[in-house]
Design brief:
Elements: H1 2-17, H2 24-47, E1 51-52, H3 66-82, H4 90-114, E2 119-120
Helix pairs in contact: 1-3, 2-3
Keywords: Membrane, Transmembrane, Transmembrane helix
Transmembrane segments: 6-22, 29-48, 68-86, 93-111
Length: 122
């Protein structure tokens, strides 16, 4: 239980301190958009029983994990938008999509393997 709380605290700190101050407006808009998509996706997964969260911040309020799908994963979308290489070649843009496309699945895989924050059932 201490390990899961520590993982969530480190994730929150990483999320809160790496957004540049000059890009806060763009970050807020993209964060809300990514948060809406993540919430719908998580709700569908929990409703159909594809995923369960043994460790949750709000045990009695919801079966969903607050920090992962409301803070951490939407912030990955924010970083994708903020750091997008506008003046780059096609190879660099393809590599950028590949790297950012692997961040969330890799993070989810590591969370499932080494903690009890998330458990994929199917």
């Amino acid at each position: 239980m201490i390990k899961e709380a520590l993982i969530l605290i480190v994730s929150w700190i990483a999320v809160l301190f790496f957004i540049p101050k000059q890009s806060r407006k763009t970050a807020q808009i993209s964060f809300l958009f990514c948060q809406a998509i993540a919430w719908i996706f998580e709700y569908i997964q929990v409703y159909f029983g594809f995923v369960e969260f043994p460790f949750r911040e709000f045990n009695y309020a919801t079966k969903m994990n607050f920090s992962l799908y409301y803070i951490v994963y939407p912030t990955a979308g924010v970083f994708f938008i903020l750091w997008y290489p506008l003046k780059a070649g096609k190879i660099r843009i393809i590599a950028y999509y590949f790297i950012f496309g692997m961040i969330v699945p890799t993070y989810s895989f590591l969370l499932e393997k080494y903690s009890s924050l998330v458990h994929f059932r199917r």
